[in-house]
């Protein structure tokens, strides 16, 4: 019945205690901060002890100084806005198309059978494999980047909307038939509210995918204002402090997107919990 | 014992059973297959006709037969095959490293609340940065050799594996854990006979996402910094304006993505065959 034999279990069982007692002494609310602070302290120590090459490991104050300089002379700030703008345009285009097509496929059995297999195969093609093709069709400039970002947002919204609509209980569909709902009423009263949680899941991942694609497009396609462009610069000029700052911004934007998406989901799906 | 397990499991089996109808609807049998072929064949016909009529500039879309020839040629002279092997090897190494470390780390984090409190916030913060964003830094530190590819692919596979494994380990039903206590299992048998088997659906979700992420990252990293592999082939084709090369590499990339997906689904079903409710 067991999948894995228990041979050798005794040998490991004693050393398997994962949290050694000394760590338990650190207060519960301080624990989330302990590891990052320790890492930063080690980093600072290494940077100042002269062990690490400052080109590879700039001190923390160098990164902060770079940040202050960048944002006071509107350097990185402008780039961040350029990236965000690109990201949001692509996100909106891609997710509108994704939700629209997802609803169409969810509503119509025929469309589902016609397009479903193609879209499932399309989903398996690595997103970045489209970059060379897109750059030849739309150019490596702004249009190509936005198309690529839109493609990244399109896939998760499409799949989730589709699954959301096809996951609506049969009894709801029958109820709609009994009440002789038209297509529009069915969509408005049953399909869209029923699929909403899945649609939001799709939008949430689309937001994250689009941000990844924004960075990818900026690194892979023509250099333009944006975080990715600055990262190219940082890599070529060996400015590790700039690169670290960019990574920090990328992560920060990711966190903010997650928080916003979580809040929106919570706000719109409250009726489900009640 | 078997029957007792079946009843104990029924609460958990629902989540997998609920997914089945959509799955069946998405992959219908032969009759629907024909309908599914209508659109691809229609597109292919339109493409062929447009090319025959000379309506398609080759810089936008070369005729399908040229793409097909390029594909055959690449297979015959070995260039496409060797690129594919290089790419597959990179993904295998990166994914194996990332998934293995991710499984161990994810299990540890799932089992220990203390450890989770220490490392969770840092891990979540780091995972918010798109994988590609780390690439310039990693390039400066390790260069653009194989090390770069393994690190970046490994990292992109690591994140979903950790997230899903720790979630799966944390969600082990209380009843199973109690059963282990009643049978006075050792820590190790509890892990291998209760926790891990029960977490398998989650772990596989993680592995599947990890492999898909790894494949994505491979293509990106080969486009940015590489001198061989499928991504390089595409970048090269783009520079020479040889779209047929780009397209044939894309076809291979897509086929491998599909193969990965199918392989993991098969393995997952195989590993879950003990679960009575799982449809086969």
Which features would summarize this protein structure in a list?
heterodimer, A: 274 residues, mainly alpha, MetI-like fold, 2 domains, 13 helices, 78% helix, 0% strand, disordered N terminus, B: 280 residues, 11 helices
Short recap of the structure:
The complex is a heterodimer of chains A (274) and B (280). By secondary structure, chain A is an all-alpha fold.
The CATH homologous superfamily of the domain at 79-271 in chain B corresponds to: MetI-like
CATH architecture of the largest domain in chain A: Orthogonal Bundle
Oligomer: heterodimer
Average pLDDT of chain A, rounded to a whole number, is 83
Unreliable residue runs of chain B: 1-23
- What number is the mean pLDDT of chain B? 84
Element order, helices and strands of chain B?
Answer: HHHHHHHHHHH
Q: State the domain count of chain A.
A: 2
User: Biggest sheet of chain A, open or closed, and with what strands and sense?
Assistant: none
Which two chains share the most extensive interface?
Answer: A-B, 74 and 78 residues
Q: What's the end-to-end separation of chain A, in Å?
A: 42 Å
Coarse shape of chain A:
elongated
Give the SSE string of chain A. HHHHHHHHHHHHH
Fraction of residues in H or I helices of chain A: over 70%
How many beta strands in the DSSP annotation of chain A?
A: 0
Q: Which architecture of the domain at 79-271 in chain B would the CATH scheme give at its second level?
A: Orthogonal Bundle
Could you give the count of β-strands of chain B? 0
Structural class of chain B: mainly alpha
Based on CA atoms alone, the radius of gyration of chain B comes out at: 23 Å
Q: Which word captures the global form of chain B?
A: globular
Q: Structural class from helices and strands of chain A?
A: mainly alpha
């Amino acid at each position: 019945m067991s999948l894995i034999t228990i041979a050798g279990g005794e040998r490991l069982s004693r050393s398997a205690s994962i949290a050694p007692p000394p760590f338990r002494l650190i207060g519960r609310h301080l624990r989330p901060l302990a590891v990052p602070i320790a890492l930063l302290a080690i980093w600072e120590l290494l940077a100042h002890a002269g062990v690490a090459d400052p080109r590879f490991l700039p001190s923390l104050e160098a990164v902060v100084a770079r940040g202050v300089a960048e944002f006071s002379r509107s350097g990185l700030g402008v780039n961040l806005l350029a990236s965000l703008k690109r990201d949001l345009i692509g996100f909106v285009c891609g997710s509108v198309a994704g939700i629209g097509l997802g609803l169409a496929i969810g509503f119509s059995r025929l469309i589902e059978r016609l397009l479903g297999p193609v879209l499932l195969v399309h989903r398996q093609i690595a997103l970045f494999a489209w970059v060379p093709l897109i750059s030849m069709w739309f150019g490596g400039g702004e249009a190509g980047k936005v198309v690529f970002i839109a493609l990244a947002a399109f896939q998760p919204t499409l799949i989730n909307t589709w699954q959301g609509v096809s996951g609506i209980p049969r009894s709801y569909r029958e109820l709609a038939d009994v009440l002789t709902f038209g297509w529009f009423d069915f969509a408005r009263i049953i399909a869209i509210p029923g699929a909403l949680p899945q649609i939001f899941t799709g939008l949430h991942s689309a937001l994250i995918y689009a941000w990844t694609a924004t960075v990818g497009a900026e690194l892979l396609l023509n250099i333009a204002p944006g975080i990715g462009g600055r990262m190219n610069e940082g890599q070529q000029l060996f400015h590790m402090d700039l690169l670290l700052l960019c990574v920090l911004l990328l992560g920060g934007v990711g966190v903010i997107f997650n928080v916003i998406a979580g809040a929106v989901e919570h706000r719109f799906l409250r009726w489900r919990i009640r | 014992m078997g029957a007792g397990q079946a009843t104990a499991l029924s609460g958990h089996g629902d989540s997998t059973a609920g997914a089945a109808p959509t799955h069946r609807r998405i992959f219908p049998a032969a009759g629907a297959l024909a309908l599914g072929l209508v659109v691809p064949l229609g597109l292919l016909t339109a493409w062929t006709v447009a090319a025959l009529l000379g309506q398609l500039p080759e810089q936008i879309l070369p005729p399908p037969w040229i793409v097909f020839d390029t594909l055959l040629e690449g297979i015959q002279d070995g260039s496409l095959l060797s690129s594919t092997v290089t790419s597959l090897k990179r993904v295998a190494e990166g994914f194996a490293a990332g998934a293995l470390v991710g499984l161990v780390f994810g299990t540890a984090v799932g089992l220990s609340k203390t450890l989770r409190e220490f490392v969770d916030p840092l891990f979540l913060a780091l995972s918010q940065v798109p994988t590609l964003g780390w690439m310039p830094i990693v390039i400066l530190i390790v260069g653009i050799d194989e090390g770069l590819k393994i690190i970046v692919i490994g990292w992109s596979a690591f994140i979903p594996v950790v997230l899903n494994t720790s979630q799966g380990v944390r969600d082990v039903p209380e009843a199973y854990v109690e059963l282990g206590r009643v049978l006075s299992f050792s820590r190790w048998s509890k892990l291998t006979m209760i926790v891990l088997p029960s977490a398998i659906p989650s772990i596989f979700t993680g592995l599947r996402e990890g492999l898909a992420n790894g494949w994505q990252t491979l293509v990106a990293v080969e486009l940015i910094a590489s001198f061989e592999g499928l991504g390089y082939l595409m970048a090269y084709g783009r520079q020479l304006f040889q779209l047929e090369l780009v397209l044939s590499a894309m076809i291979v990339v897509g086929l491998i993505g599909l193969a990965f997906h199918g392989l993991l689904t098969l393995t997952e079903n195989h590993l879950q065959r003990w679960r009575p409710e799982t449809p086969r």
